[in-house]
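Possible race condition, two jobs.
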Amino acid sequence: MIKAKKEGVIFRKTELSFENESVLNPAVIKEGDLIHIFYRAVHIKNYSSIGYCNMDSPLTIKERWEKPILSPEFDYEKHGTEDPRIVQIDGVYYLTYVAFDGDNALGALATSTDLVNFKKQGIIVPKITYTDFDLLTQNNINLNKKYLVYNEGANILADKDLVFFPRRINGKLVFTHRIKPDIQITAVKELSDLTDDFWINYFSRLKDHIFLSSQYPHEAEYVGSGCPPIETEHGWLVLYHGVKRVHGNYEYSCCAALMELNDPGKEIARLPYPLFKPDQDYELAGGDVDDVCFPTGTVLEGDQLYIYYGAADELIACASVSLKGLTEELLRQPFLNPPR
């Protein structure tokens, strides 16, 4: 069994108006000697923007901006830009986030070539109604009934946790996203291929696009995308969040799986236990949400993998683990066919 080391709290909210409620769920990328962090900054009444800081070591902040780097501009994000992730593909930085208009929460994209100036590309996940989803997925034999339970009554289904793989695979842009209760995977040559017809065909064959499903007790309720996948010689290391019920509440843990390099929808191995879960005071109790470790970004220094996460939806913390040790532990796990 492998255990991650809790490195503690990295930073907390300030008195600045855009982040005086909480800071959480950071996107992280290293360029040269700097680690760049784009984080969800929340102010009163749960309105979110994206803040920025950089670090000159995995645990030490060098500079922190006193204003957001990305704020709501359009109707589709008027209530918040939330939970960013970031990768670089073909010289372009892809920063994904949840666009929240007060009713609908959907994955959106902003791109940059310098990590300072971002161009918003809009929502790129499907905007599908509950009724259309029910109709289009009727031919998916044995589709998890939780899809209808979790999404019943929604006008537009929430599609969150949008995360790109950090390079093209077989010439395609590949990303994961999440309509509860599973993580789905999508691959296209270009983002312009994400048309209404594309999504109609996608949902009629949804079972073919399920990336990860709940398999173990610590992820029994649902799973969601976490950090951008990490390429290793053994496959893509995927750190995601798993959710279970504990005494009537949800507990969010950091989970790990290994996926095939050239066919990332195929699972090689999965930890049968959480890599880490809430057990520190700052993870167990927050302002509004308790029992949360929500991983969203990583930095690799030699063999040491630093995992940044939102703790109790209130602050940003870090854990670390040996990359070699984690992949070796994954490869020791027997493969179980996940439910489809």
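Job #2 (started ~2 s after job #1):
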Amino acid sequence: MSVAIVRFGGSNCDRDAARALDSLDVDADIVWHEDGLPEDVSGVMLPGGFSYGDYLRAGAMAARAPVMADVREAIDDGVPVLGVCNGAQIGCEAGLTPGAFTVNVSARFQCEHVYLRVENADTPWTATYEEGDVLEIPIAHGEGRYVADEETLETLDAEDRVLFRYCDADGNVTAEANPNGSADNVAGLVSRDGQVAVMMPHPERASLPDIGGTDGRGVLRGFV
């Protein structure tokens, strides 16, 4: 398995992602966006950070970078793609997944641990969990509020495309457990074909025992 971690100017979680994937015996290489994707890539990760300084909107400029044409071609060839935090913003801005991520209700940057409830365990990204499992994974974002129109939200529910929802430690999905005001407490979702997953919390930061917690390892195992 060879995963290309796409580094844009402003990416800052690419090395975290590489270290986490390496701990799972996944061959991961950081690639500069201007160089495009390697021909033999079998997975793509869009990491967190502040691509292009979050100018215009978070992820908006990176979503229109030439490398994203390579990413779309890879998806057409069956290559799985995971977007985390800024990568999730890029994924939505590029139309790989529906909806958008915008400014937190608090209007401030939030860096803290949150709880997520696994909503659908029947995907490669959640196959190591059980539906209803509660994970503790950190967030670090200022524009993490997921928004979509009612029709899109209903479609996501009907097609079981919500991967995670913000919840409390007991798995209750409540407004109080929602750190950024995301619609329906959505923290992560997949494309219709299940190949592209985007999520705001950072699974790579909850994957190594020596930095506290491994609840996020299952998401990264989705590549395997």
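The chain has a mean pLDDT of 96.
Logs attached separately.
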